Amino acid sequence: MTTHVIGAGIAGLAAALALAEAGRPVVLHESAPNAGGRCRALPDGTDNGTHALLGANTAALGLLRRIGALEGWVEPEPGGLPVLDLRDHRAFRVALSPLGWRDAALRPPGLTGRALLALARLAVPGRDRAVGAAMAAHPEFHRGFVDPLVIAALNTPSAEASANRLGAVLRRLGGRGATRLLVARSGLGPDLVVPALAALERAGATIRFGARLRRLVTQGGRVQALDFGEDAVALGAGDAVVLATPPWESQRLLPHLETPLAYAPIVNLHYAHPNPGPVRFIGMLEALCQWVLVRPAGVSVTVSAGDAAAREEAATLGPRAWAELREAALAFGLAGDWPEAAPPCRVVKERRATPRHAPGPPLRPPRLPLANLALAGDWTDPVLPATIEASVRSGEAAARALMR
């Protein structure tokens, strides 16, 4: 009764681990030479993005706990998120929890009672509409707090982002410690992917890299074989498959599967700039840079919903982002040297990073499109946006569906 997991992104890793821990024989197949999917580490060890978790991400944190990696995640800004607003070059801190807004020094720009009520209304499920329209009466609060939250969580501009998807995020932020911001101290490779692979090996799973699934051989509503080109794997009566591939790959393998129609890009910039200080995390407004992650090994910048940045040449992106993040580093007194000249920079553009989460009925792909095949992937969650949390939840849900 072997389960074959196709795809070693976060959803595939979560599914494989849940199955292996339940005593099921597992074979994990990955087309790339390494694991992690869109959360992969780059060849030099840096992350592809400033990935962060919140305390509300219980599934992701639970996975980290089970693989023994939770200690590698740190809270870089417990005193409130540092923010630099390039509109007026003001540096300030913002509490991520509304409870922290009782301190006037930690309130987001434009906060009023009416603005807070408008945000609370977004947490109530109802007729879906764009977040930008819902917050139009509170432009400063929207600009300084809601829009950055939407772009970070939904990777979709507020003008077209689903209020119901944002509401699902907001409803999860009310618990104790739910807004704690955590980042991987060394990177997603050493602090998530490598420990997950080690946990799978301890559980007896087999891992195959460089194995791209060409097609699913199906008959009678079941998968009969996996065609990898040079070799094929025949499935026995009790064998099963978890398909944890990107939506376009899933649709290639299951042509009748409904998948997202539009995607949003993310642009990441990684600077070879070692820093002697602790891990730091800074937000920026009215800037190309949205999030700046400073680690001892280097500095990374993420531009979510980055349609314009994805069209810009890397030769201009690197110096432009460096000038902004340098101003932020100096404004908050970050340790180390911050020269005017930009250090070497690697620019990574993911043009289909996530679905565009627009208003309207969400996709509800079947968890079991075939009797012995379960779907996984952040895009399969009909409630949460496509995030690490949604990836883990979907992988564990696929495992449960097959074990039932």
UniProtKB/TrEMBL annotation:
Pfam families: Amino_oxidase. SUPFAM superfamilies: FAD/NAD(P)-binding domain. Residues 10-402 form the Amine oxidase domain. This is FAD-dependent oxidoreductase. It comes from Paracraurococcus lichenis.
